[in-house]
Each structure stands twice: as structure tokens, then as C-alpha cells.
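Encode chain A's predicted structure.
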Amino acid sequence: MSSQVRLRLQPSARCLYDEPVQVKVAGLRPRQVVTIRARSTDEKGVEFSSSATYRADGSGEIDLDTDPSLGGSYVGVEPMGLLWSMRSETLHKRCQKNKALNPHVVKFSVHEDEGEGRMLAEATNERLLMGDGVSRLPVKEGNIRGVLFTPPGTGPFPAVLDLYTLGGGVSEKRASLLASRGFVVLTVALYGHDDMPKNIQEVHLDYFEESIKFLKKQDQVGNKGVGVISLSKSGDLALSVASYLPGVEATVWINGCSANTALPLYYKRSQLLPALMFDLTKLIPTESGAMMGKYALHNPLAEENKGSLVPIEQAEGRFLFVASEDDLNWDSKGYMDEMVERLKRHGKENFESVCYPAAGHYLEPPYGPYCPSSIHGLVGKPVLWGGEPRSHAAAEVHMWKKIQEFFRTQLSCDATATEAELSIRVQS
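Encoded structure for chain A:
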């Protein structure tokens, strides 16, 4: 390693997962061409990596905020390109980073572009999923199985129920990051976690009602209603929570369906909605070995399926609909358009929507590795998620800010001071 070459991460090598860092290199020869690499290992032991070629300026410096990549995992000026372009050498792997106590550790390095690429400098970026002072409490109360995240301070804070992933375990990433931004967040599992059944044949709305009551009784939570955030299948469950249960002020629906999918929905032991099902013969194979499932779900607007539509027109709270036009899992944009049209037809104005033309299905907190395909929990095979990597990454940055603004506005809480305090503490 060259003692003259310096790789710096600004403003700090330690930051929250959803914060950008400025990557700078100094001490190179004027106009020297080098390769900058990033690598990380997820919770399953799978390594993800990226690389890009850069040319130093006349002073021997490179700044990823302003200098373009000449080739590699991406081209052009992409300040965070080394993060979102990281991929596994094994096909159909999605970066598993779900446990809030484990930071996303990324090693950056600079290499000579000739020969074997001798390393010239390196630096480690510790990307925290949980800000300093945020508390993490595993929840096993009544039927609830999940994790509660609470910001430092006495509050009151706005409360959010996170339905990110409902089976196989609890995903803590989004919930812990929202808590780091000033929200009390409960993320829950529905099956396959801890002592829960491994599989279920039906979903009971009572479980989410119990979760909301638990969330609202926390000391740091204000007396306003709660927010709900979802993704994919949990999108239709979030719609049902908002439509049938009281006290839900704000619902974020991300690339879900407008109808109740896969499993029938019950409340107080009575069925509310039948399940809209899939036709797996409509899965389209691709050269990569992954299936394309956009057209496998039955049409919710067909006369025989309309009973599965979630009656969002009876919801009292507000909705934020987020859809990706290049979602290859199913037709999220079409489902969003149907809901918007239906709400308008009922004279409702309690919604806003945002659409990302070249983004794929898995819209998450920003700066994680883009995932083109991975194993689908229901299908049991790899499927394509869609999206163009650069556009998908930009959509995640925009969406993440939009979600926080939406919740702060609708849940009547100004968390600016809390967020600023957390940001300062995590960088110190």
C-alpha cells in the first residue's frame, strides 16, 4: 500500500445507513488512472462488491461527488455508485442486512489500474442501522412477535407500524432507520418467527389491531393515530388495516396490490376478504434462470375477483401510494392507478401518489445494493424484480425523504430537532 495515497470518507467514516458519504482520493500522480472498489459481506456470509475506474485530476485527486467513472460497475458521476452497484458473484442473491445491531460494513479501496492492481489505500465505512440512543426492544406480548424501536428522549414521537416482511423473521432495517429519524416503530412478523407457526392459511386483522394498541400505549408515543408502512404483499394488508381499523392516520403503500392477495383475511373469526390468487403457469422464464411474474396474479378487476378488492374508500386516514413502473413482480402502477381512480370516484382526496418510471419492485431505504433478482418466498424460485440500477437507486433516495415528510405531516410531529441530534451523535 502506498503511504502517499489517501482515501477519505467525509464527513465521517461512521454514519447511518441512509446517509451519503463523500469518497475522496488524494496523493495520486497527475491524471493517474485507478480502480476504486467496494466490498461488503451480508448476514448470510454472501460477499457483494463493485468497482469503478477513475482518472485523477492535475493535482492527483479524485472526488466521487464530481468526477465521472470511466467504466466498471457504472459510468458517469455517481457519488454513491459504489454502494448501490455492489453485486454478488452468485446469481439471484439479495443483500440480507436486517438486524439493527449489525452495521453494514463496507470496505473501500484504491488500486493501480495496471497489472494485478496493487492496493494503494483503503478505508472502512461503518453504516449503522440504528442511531446512537435509539433503543431496541424485542416484543413477545400476547400474539405479537416483533421488535420495538424508540428514539432517545421523552417524546412524544409519532408512531409507525412497519409491515416490511411478515414471514420467516423480523426485518429491522427500515424500522430502526425510521426510529433514528424520530419515530417510534414496531416491526412485526406474522408467521415463521420465534414460536410462531411456520406457515399460515389465513391472515387475521386482529393481530394488527393488537399491534397498534401495543404501539399506542408506549410512553413516548403521542395521542395521535399511528402510521403504517408496507411493501409488496404487506401493501394490501396495510390497506386493510387503514380501511377496517380505527386510529390509522397515515398509510404508506409501496409496490403492493389493491386487492387482498394470497391468503384470505379474517377479523373476529369472520372472513372480510377472499384471496386473489396467482396462476403460476403465467410465470415467464428468462435466460438468467429467474422467472418474470408480472402477469401471474389474477386480475382484481375481473368480475369474479372484485370481492377481493380492499375497500380503501372507507378509510379515514391518508394514503401515500408509491409505485414503480418497471416492477416485474406484478403491476404495481396499474394497481395504484385503479385505487386513485376509485378514491376520486368516491369523492375522496385523502391520498397522494408518486411513480418511478425505471425503478423495480424492491424499493428500500437508500444506498444498499440494488437487487435485480432473488428467491421469491411464495414462488420458491428466483424471480426478476425489475428496475434500472441507477434510476432505482435515485428513486430510493427520493422515496425515503418523501415517506418521512408524509409521516411527519400526517402524524403532527416535528422531529427535526430529534433527527439533527441523532445525526450529530452518530457522526461523533
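The radius of gyration is 22 Å.
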